[in-house]
Amino acid sequence: MPLPSFHDPSLLIRARTHRSYVNEHAEVTEDNERLEFLGDAVLDFVAGAFLYHRFPEMREGGLTRLRASLVNTEQLARFAIEIELGGLLRLGKGEAESGGRKRQTLLADAFEAVLGAYYLDSGLDAVRAFVEPLFAEAGDNILLSERDVDAKSMFQEWAQAELGQTPRYSTLSVSGPDHSREYTIAVLVGGEAFGTGSGPSKQAATQAAARSALEKVGLA
């Protein structure tokens, strides 16, 4: 995915300019840190609006957590790599030789600076059109990863934040021979059942019940 086109190329040049470059070139007076500040604010808003519309059933806690994952340093560095930003950065000699073009924090900051510059150049709608395709794939991958890793923890986080209570898991049934057990477990919060799940072990059934509960509350 290429960088967007700018009406004012000087904005993009500034967004690509690290302070280490300014320190080594007296003729250059501006680095990208002010644009990074602006881009950070634009990014939070655009990401929040994107998630709000893409996941209409998701509650505030889930949206907040997903936005945090979508705009953290590691993810922003991935976006920067996807648009091949590292090779375009103007870095000081020492910064470049020490691997600055691959450093996550530097890449993330530069990505924010590009968004800040693009906002000044072309406006919010243009920024949205540029970043939403990046958000779409990354957001889906983050959700899939979270669900696969630990649905139980996700649901507990939601229940404590939204209801002020910790989920309780109750075994409804155990069937099958010893070598092929089937457990069915329900997850309850405050006496209300939020989901049930089955699996070959209590752990698997618990995770299945938690995933069912996440679907009920709009987090899956």
Basic shape: elongated
CATH topology of the largest domain: Ribonuclease iii, N-terminal Endonuclease Domain, Chain A
Report mean pLDDT, rounded to a whole number. 89
Main beta sheet: strand number and arrangement?
3 strands, antiparallel
- Tell me the number of strands: 3
Order of helices and strands: HHHHHHHHEEEH
The parts where pLDDT drops under 50 for at least 5 residues are none
Q: Which percent band covers the strand fraction? A: 5-15%
Oligomer: single chain
What's the CATH first level of the largest domain? Mainly Alpha
Brief characterization of the structure:
By secondary structure, the protein is mainly α. The protein is built from nine helices and three strands, in the order H-H-H-H-H-H-H-H-E-E-E-H.
Draw up the topology in text.
Blueprint: H1 9-15, H2 19-24, H3 33-54, H4 60-70, H5 73-82, H6 93-97, H7 104-122, H8 124-162, E1 168-175, E2 182-189, E3 192-199, H9 202-216
Antiparallel strand pairs: 1-2, 2-3
Helix pairs in contact: 1-7, 3-4, 3-7, 3-8, 4-8, 5-7, 7-8, 8-9
